[in-house]
Amino acid sequence: MNRFIVVDFETTGSHPRQGDSIIQIGAVTIDDGHITESFSTLINPGQAIPPFIKQLTGITDEMVADAPTLEEVLPRFLRMLEGRTFVAHNASFDLQFLQEALLSQGYYTFDGYVLDTVELSRFLMPMQGSYRLGELADDLQIEHDRPHQADSDALATAQLFLHLLDILNELPLVTIQRLQILVSSFRSDISELLRFFEIKKWEAVGQLETSERETAGFSDPSDSEKWDVYRQLALRKKPERLRASLKREEQAVHSSFEEMLERMVGEEAAFSRNLPGYQRREAQESMMRAIFDSLEKGSHLLVEAGTGTGKSLAYLLPAILWSKQRREPVVISTNTIQLQEQLFHKEIPALQQSLPFPFRASTLKGRGNYLCLRKFEQSLEESMEGSSQELRLVKGQMVTWLTQTETGDVEELSMPSTGQLYWQQVKSDTDSCLHRNCPWFSRCYYFQARERASEADVLIVNHALLVSDLQAEKRILPAHDIAIIDEAHHLESVATHHLGKQFSTAQLLFLLDRANPQEGSYLHRFAEELLALPGNGQSSPVSSVLTSMNGHFLQLKEKSQQLAQLLYQWASERGEETSDTGRDTVRYRTTSFSGKHERIRKTARRVIESMSLFASDLDSLLACMSADEKPSFEWRSLYTDAAGLLKEWQEGMELVHFFLLEPGDEYVCWMEIESRTPKKQVYFHAAPLQVATRLAEPLFEERRSVILTSATLTVKDSFSYIMERMGLDHLPEERVRTLQLPSPFCYEQQGLLLIPSDLPTLGKDSEQQYIEAVVQGCVDAIRAAGGRTMILFTSYSMLRQVYQGLKEQVGDEPYTLLGHGIDSNNRTKLVRMFQREANSVLLGTSSFWEGVDIQGEALSCLVIVRLPFTPPNHPVYQARAEQVKEQGKNAFMSIALPQAVIQFKQGVGRLIRHHDDRGVVVVLDARIVESRYGRSFLKSLPPFDTRSGPWTVLREDISPFLRGMQSLSDS
Q: Strand 361-363 and strand 458-462: pairing?
């Protein structure tokens, strides 16, 4: 298999059997790994091209009017196709058009091999964020200047395919063989391609000396330097590290902070050499001094650093110097993975180049983020009979991923939803760990991460792990006295989640699937191994326990499904949209299940009783193992997983009991359901009413110094709200310091804030009037800015309505609409599409209000539809508001308003990200000028050029402002 034709068709639609036709063909041939010929032509389809296709492809009726017909083009195309494998991106789409075209012209259909580069990319590039051709081309630096034009798409796909062939050629033999087993039932001919490469590698292995051949898995002798092949799995080989280099440097750094600061930031200093575009900033240096001073004096510090301050470097430099001077580690915590990655892969390497002394940095995540190699090996040995294609794909992705990853961190993987469930089966966890008895122990990703963490001067974690460490009485992270918390405005919400509890009917049913004792299952295999032990015949307790388990399991499955249905029905009748997660929410107490709904509690009790009986059976099965036995690894592995399952089972019982029978008074409980999908699952949540008291002692009172920083910590220039929420207001005044640093940007010249005063208001006017006005406001802003607009919403329902309205009004204009939850659920993917496609418009909900960094003209206009108040019916807000009222305070002023102001500041902060950026903010919520509390929002913003008045007047300012700014930046 070494002759290929890579094809792309542009068409009038998606349904060839319903009359849609090909309007352009692009084809590229590849022979023996080289592009040998390319062909492209427009085709006259004999019908009008729909407006959407014209906009997508740029191909018009006039362009195809004089083009050849399909009948005239096919002979040349078929000569290229003959004897070749058909390759395309989403091959099933192009193949159906080819087959229909061949039939319509009296030819036989194509019966050769077919390969899909989407499927191949998912297998061979499992760490890719997106498998769209445009994103793949960007990441691989493949020239693709005319997306949705067949010639450009075909050439880009051909170059992608050559890259995939290179990956296959590099993979070791054992990996190819593992993939072969997994893809044997696939519809495409990927198995034939793998077989071709397997034969090539066997031929290469055959040329080696016998002793080398015995090491197995290498396509040539030099591969032993790339792969660590063990137990028929190939892992990426990690660079050898000298044990001596791993110990913390004994020699302390004695330079003073001011000396080191001048060496780093002074004229012609290290930062300017090693950080492209570095500019000296007074606010950044003030922040560095304040942080180092707090570390020295043992005080806590809250720093609000405006956008552009460069706060990452501002806390990293003093943290590293402090760590090296005192020979003590510093922990840095972030909320988002993006910032973690930025710190570790961008700022840390620049500092390692710049500083005159070495230091070690590492990252650590929760244990469940790391792959357990023992469990994964075991899952590959299980029968694949009856497995879905999606599960086979996930396993194949992970087999390839092992040859690419150094960390084993699930965040690297781009898996479908099936993969998320499968991950629960193969992730590392305490309960099923064999520790040093595991043959994979020396290669264990989690223990390697722990080892690196223990040796680091600077350890980067996320808020979730930081809070988990506090919960676990500080047994997870290495001992440390200094913590720096970036994105600190999120710490309370993360603590609320991680100090709370979560469960779902999906988890319950997944737990049931894993505990299935019927023939062919994991537990049945465990019982068979027990029966095979000396002295355990058919009359042994194992057989009777297994019979009992089967009986209890069937009853339990029926009762669990019944409970899930009852809960879904109850929640669906009461649920309301309280967030932009796309789920409906209902707060409840156990008294909610009284009267005719008492059946829910009765069924829950029956489920718990059945779970308890099954747990006793499982415990009895584990007890059948003789203490005198010296088990093999395989046997010990099965036993450990069964013991781990028993613990998970008991935890599941406790959660069902907690959520449905006896939730604690200190929690607020609610259910969520996905009302707009066919999934009838119920998600349970419990959140502590008080977080401050649970953070104050372990985080602040017991540590020397904690630095909290963010671009948004104050409300109307005051830190009191954040201090109260964190429990810092109860510490002595001298222990807590604050610092507010302005942004270095010139907002008066760089930004224009427009507040229409004549838009309808929800509550006073009808929702329909309000939506129509919002749509018109967005249309005006989009046209004035030439696209390049992001629109922020507080609810999915309003986003969908506005998206539909925009589609009706500007659908035929040259703007690309990108709706979160409509065009994609992946924020990173949507932002990249927005940046890449000119004149695009991005509609996003809460996750887009922060963490989106789009510099330059790609984002020139930001529209905020509603002030971001938490819905008053959200369970956590509702319960905390009730508590605040009992204390005689105003819940709106104490909780709702400060939260909304901080979120609003974050949203506005998306626009101006660089000192060259210019842009317009439009706020379509009249409350910001009409209400008394509106001043809190305006006073918390940077000093924009702010204008308010009739929208018909204000909208005329957008285009001149942006044109004026462009001419200024050009001059």
A: parallel
DSSP one-letter code for 700: I
Q: Where are the beta strands (DSSP E) in 764-803?
A: 789-792
Q: Given this model, what pLDDT does residue 247 score?
A: 44
pLDDT value for 221: 45
In sequence order, the 6+-apart residues with CB closer than 8 A to the CB of 647 are: 431
> For residue 96, which amino acid is it?
Q
HSE on the CB side for 943, CA within 13 Å?
7
Q: Give the tens place of pLDDT for each residue, 544-590.
A: 888 888 888 888 999 999 999 999 999 988 888 766 566 889 999 88
Half-sphere exposure of 243 (CA within 13 A, CB side): 0
Banded model confidence at residue 285, pLDDT cuts 50, 70, 90: very high
Residue from 910, 936, 912, 907 nearest 924 by CA: 907
Instruction: Quote the strand ranges of 313-438, DSSP E.
Output: 330-334, 361-363
Output 799-802 pairs: Cβ under 8 A, ≥24 positions apart: 799/580, 799/843, 799/844, 799/845, 801/771, 802/771, 802/774, 802/775, 802/778, 802/843, 802/865
**DSSP annotation of 601:** H
Phi, psi angle pair for 754, to nearest 5°: -110, 130
Reading the block at residue 146, the tokens are 């005319």
64-117 confidence digits (pLDDT tens) = 999 999 999 999 999 999 999 999 999 999 999 999 999 999 999 999 999 999
Phi and psi at 228, nearest 5°, equal: -110, 100
Angle CA(161)–CA(162)–CA(165) in degrees, nearest 5?
A: 90
Tell me, what DSSP letter sits at residue 732? -
Please give the angle made by the CA atoms of 966, 903 and 749, to the nearest 5 degrees.
25
Which H, E and C letters describe 122-187, residue by residue?
HHHCCCCCCCCHHHHHHHCCCCCCCCCCHHHHHHHHHHHHHHHHHHHHHCCHHHHHHHHHHCCCCC
Position 742, amino acid = P
Strand-pairing partners, residue 841, are 789, 817
Please give the residue that has the higher pLDDT: either 838 or 498: 498
From start to end of 550-704, where are the E strands? 576-577, 584-588, 667-673, 682-688
CB 547 within 8 A of CB 766: no
- The C-alpha atoms of residue 920 and residue 929 are separated, in whole angstroms, by 18
Residue 416 has pLDDT above 90, yes or no: no
Total residue length of the chain: 971
Q: Per residue in 649-685, pLDDT tens?
A: 999 999 999 999 988 788 999 999 886 667 788 999 9
Tokens of 202: 């066997």
Residue 404 to residue 419: CA distance in whole angstroms = 18
CA separation, residue 784 to residues 295, 777, 958 (Å): 50, 11, 6
Give the three-class secondary structure for 937.
helix
Q: Cβ(69)–Cβ(46) under 8 Å? A: yes
Rounded to a whole number of angstroms, the CA Rg of the chain reads 31
Q: Distance between CA 399 and CA 504 in Å, rounded?
A: 30
The DSSP code sequence of 806-827 is HHHHHTTTT-EEEEBTTTBS-H
Considering only CA atoms, which of 937, 947, 797 is closest in space to residue 871?
797
Cα distances (Å, whole numbers) of residue 42 to 52, 59, 61, 103: 18, 9, 11, 20
Q: For 703-719, what is the mean pLDDT?
A: 94
Beta bridge partners of 482: 330, 705
Helix runs in 61-143, H state only: 61-65, 70-81, 91-104, 117-124, 133-139
* CA distance from start to end of the chain: 57
At residue 267, the pLDDT reads: 66
Tens of pLDDT, residue by residue over 881-905, are 999 999 999 999 999 999 999 999 9
**Tokens for 342?**
């930025």
pLDDT of 965 over the 80 cut:
no
Going by their DSSP bridges, the two strands 861-864 and 919-923 should be labelled as parallel
